[in-house]
Amino acid sequence: MKMMQRLIVLLGLLPLAALANTHTVEMLNRNDTGPMPFAPDYLIVQPGDTVKFLATAPGHNAATIDGMIPEGGEAFVGNINEEIEVTLNAEGIWGIKCSPHYTMGMVMLIQVGDTTATEEDLPDNLPAPARQRFVEILSRQANN
Ligand SMILES: [Cu+2]
């Protein structure tokens, strides 16, 4: 009985951080969404969760897009051909690109928290293929 009480007390003391999740995103050359995709290309996480970008196919990286980082968030740039793991605390919509394939539209969105992304979140100066990919992602999300 005493043991059981201890266990219950211990469970109650588990820090919240232990509940943070890790999500994986693959960097690919092609899938059914088209060429040069992140998979998934729309990810919903909670503040404090970790996102791990896997260098599944060669030649890619993951980096934040200027103007698409929520307030309080920090920019990051991964190395090409390398896995990168980031913990996202700032709530809002994060725009992610692959640096070498940004102008080909290799982008994705990460929603941290409850606010869903809309076209309002897209800055004006995006390369056209990146904007087009974002619009596709958003319309797919809206239809889910
Ligand atoms: Cu790429």
Automatic annotation (TrEMBL):
It is found in: Periplasm. SUPFAM superfamilies: Cupredoxins. It comes from Halomonas citrativorans. CDD domains: Pseudoazurin. Its cofactor is Cu cation. Residues 1-20 form the signal peptide. Residues 26-112 form the Blue (type 1) copper domain. Keywords: Copper, Electron transport, Metal-binding, Periplasm, Signal, Transport. This is Pseudoazurin.
